[in-house]
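> @MW can you paste both from yesterday?
MW: sure, first one:
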Amino acid sequence: MGALRLDALVGFMQDIAGDDAREATGEPTSAPIAWLVRRLDLEVRSRPRALTPLTVTTWASGHGAAWAERRTRVATPDGIVAEAVTIWAAVSAETFAPVRLDRDEIASWGEAAQRRVDARLRLPGPPVDGLREPWPARVTDFDAYGHVNNAVYWSAVEERLDGVLGPGALGRATIEFRDGIAWGEQADLVTSTDDGVVLWFLVGDRTAATARFEPGV
C-alpha cells in the first residue's frame, strides 16, 4: 500500500506523451489526428512511496508509415523507476482509420526519431479453454474517443500481480492493443500464471488487448 501503481505510472507516461506531442506540432487538443497506443514495453525497477518526487522524461525515438515510437523514463532523485518504449498509432480522430505520417513532421522530431521501427504485435492469443471472468468498465474508464483508456488496463494487471506475486512486483511488462474496448461493449478477462502473469481482455471472440508481466529486473 502507498507504492506507485502500474496504472498511475502509465498514466504519467501517457500525459507527458500528449504534452510533448502538442508542443512539438503546435496542434490543439482537438487535432484531427488521434494517437492511440499500439504496444507498450515497460520495465519497472522500483515502486516509490507516496509523495516521492518524480521526474518524467520522454522523446521520439522512431517511426513507421502510420506510427511513431516514443521512449519514456521515470526517475526519482535516487535513480530510475521505470523505462518504457511505446508504439503510438496515428489514426483519424473521426474514423479511426490509419493516417500516414508527414515526412516534414517526422523530420522535426529530431535525429533519434528517424529510425524505422515496426508495429507488429507479438503476444500469443488466449487459451481455448481459459476461464473467462467479467471485467466491467466504469463510465470514468473511457477516454474522449469512446474507448477504455490504455492506462486503465494496467489496474487489472496490478490486481492479478498482487494475488500472484504479492504487492509491488518488479519486472518487465508488455501490453498490446488490437481494437480495444469500446463504449457499450462487455469485456471478459482470461488470466494465465504459467509463465509470469498473462491477461487477455476479450470482447466476444475478439481479443481487445493482451498484457504480460514477467517478474525480475
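MW: second:
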Amino acid sequence: QARMYGLLVLAGVVVAWASCRWLAGASRRWGAVAAAAATVAALSHSTGFVLLAGLLLVPWLRRDREAWALRAMAGAGVVVTAVVFAPVALDRAGDRTFYPRTSLGWVTTTVNEQLAPVPAQKWLVIALLVVGGTLLIRRGGPQARVWLALFAAPLLGLVLVSFRVPLLLPKSVLSL
C-alpha cells in the first residue's frame, strides 16, 4: 500500500539536513535541495505546506544575497503548491471534515504519534521533546535554528490554525 507518510518523513529529513548545511556554508545548492524537498512534501500532503513556510524562517533575520535566494526558492515552492492545490481547496471549501476538533489532548496525541505511538507515554514523549528542544536552543548553532524553524514554529502554527479549522491529524505532520 503506497501512502505519502514515508515520503513526508524523507522530505522532512532532507529539508532539515540541507538547511543545516545551508546555514553552515550558505551554499545556494543546499538551499535549492531544501526548497525542492519541501515542495515535494507540500505536494504530497497538504500539511507539508507548513514545511515550506518553515523554510522561510531558516535564514531568520539575515539579509544577505544567499538568504534572499533561499527565501525566493521556498517562495517559489509555496506558489507552485498554491497553484496546484487552489482548485481542490476551492472545490472543497465548506465541506465537512473528518478531522476532530483540536484540544490539548488531541495536540499531545498528534505529536506523540510522530515519535512514539504508545498513547500511555504521550506526556513523557512531550516532556522529552521539550527538554530536547530546550537543550538544542541553549546549545545554539544551525541545529537549533533548524529545529525552531522547521519543527517548533510550523507545529505551533498548525496547532493555532487547527483551533479554527480542524486539520491536525496524527501522521499528517510527519514532515516536521
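> thanks! DSSP finds seven helices and no strands in the chain.
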